[in-house]
Design a protein that fits this description.
The protein is of the alpha/beta class and 249 residues long. The chain folds into two domains: 2-47 and 231-247, no CATH class; 57-228, Glycogen Phosphorylase B (Rossmann fold), CATH 3.40.50. The protein has ten helices and eight strands. It has helices at residues 2-12, 23-30, 57-64, 88-99, 136-145, 160-167, 180-183, 198-209, 212-229, 232-247; strands spanning 17-20, 39-42, 71-76, 107-112, 127-131, 148-151, 171-175, 190-193. The strands form two sheets. The chain has a six-stranded parallel beta sheet, sandwiched between helices. A two-stranded parallel sheet has the order 1-2. Helix 4 links the parallel strand 3 and strand 4 (107-112). Helix 4 (88-99) crosses helix 8 (198-209) and helix 6 (160-167) crosses helix 9 (212-229). The longest helix is centred in the last third of the chain and has 18 residues, at 212-229. The radius of gyration is 20 Å and the shape is globular.
């Protein structure tokens, strides 16, 4: 491919340092014919942990008019139920498995990012459609109200939703793809399911919700993970250090 060869020749002559927000994307770059000889560093996107912080769960639910005593599964994204990449159909399959185990009496789903109800309602678990959220305060309240945030994406880099949920002390369940393992430590602050397997995603949701003491530990670990690795001040320092290393003789 003539164009590819020109790109390779061009980039080979440039002292370039690439920054990837996830190890997955960094590995993609390392396998690229264009960037394989370049320096590639991983520095994640940061988050303001003063803004994204836990709120007492029952208070958050009262603010949003959500049930106080139910297990709440949270899912959200832009075009949450309409974008196949976000995997809502896989979440539906997982929740259907839970509904056959009589979870429908104690578990409900909260969906934000759309007002459009899913055309794939395969179970009788009650759902709450919050719609689009245009302010961070309400978003923090929503994350804090949930028992588990589920990110069933088929492909994702380092999704803000997962980082925001963890920062608010909410355990997460997702498929073991993309940048998810950078944020979710399996059975430490959430659950990483076998990619695209709704049965294992159901296992993860069930595992998170089935033990109150364990859920409390997961929530504390979720917050700690973000404070230790993704706080915006830490990320700023890493960029400063990287710039200084690039400028050093």
């Amino acid at each position: 491919n003539r164009i590819l060869k020109k790109k390779i020749n061009h980039w080979d002559n440039i002292d370039l340092t690439l920054v990837s927000p996830s190890h997955w994307l960094a590995n993609c770059a390392r396998e690229s014919s264009v960037f394989r000889h370049n320096r590639i560093e991983v520095i994640p996107n940061g988050i303001d942990t003063d803004k994204y912080r836990p709120i007492e769960k029952k208070y958050a639910r009262r603010q949003l008019g959500l049930p106080l005593e139910k297990n709440l599964i949270l899912f959200g994204a832009q075009r949450a139920t309409g974008d196949s990449r976000k995997g809502f159909d896989l979440l539906e399959e997982a929740v259907t498995r839970l509904s056959t185990e009589n979870h429908q009496h104690r578990t409900e789903i909260v969906i934000y990012g759309t007002n459009n109800k899913s055309k794939i309602e395969k179970n009788n678990i009650k759902r709450h459609y919050i719609g689009k959220i245009d302010n961070e305060k309400k978003l923090v309240t929503l994350y804090s109200a949930a028992d588990v945030f589920v990110a069933p994406s088929r492909q994702d880099n380092l999704p803000n939703t997962v980082m925001e949920a963890l920062a608010c002390g909410t355990a997460c369940a997702a498929f073991d793809i993309g940048g998810m393992p950078d944020m979710i430590e399996h059975k430490k602050n959430g659950y990483l399911a076998t990619p695209y397997d709704p049965a294992d995603l159901a296992n993860g949701i069930r595992w998170v919700l089935s033990d109150a003491d364990r859920l409390d530990r997961l929530e504390h670990a979720a917050r700690k993970k973000v404070l230790d690795e993704f706080d915006i001040n830490l990320i700023s320092k890493r960029y400063i250090d990287l710039y200084q290393s690039c400028l050093a003789p």
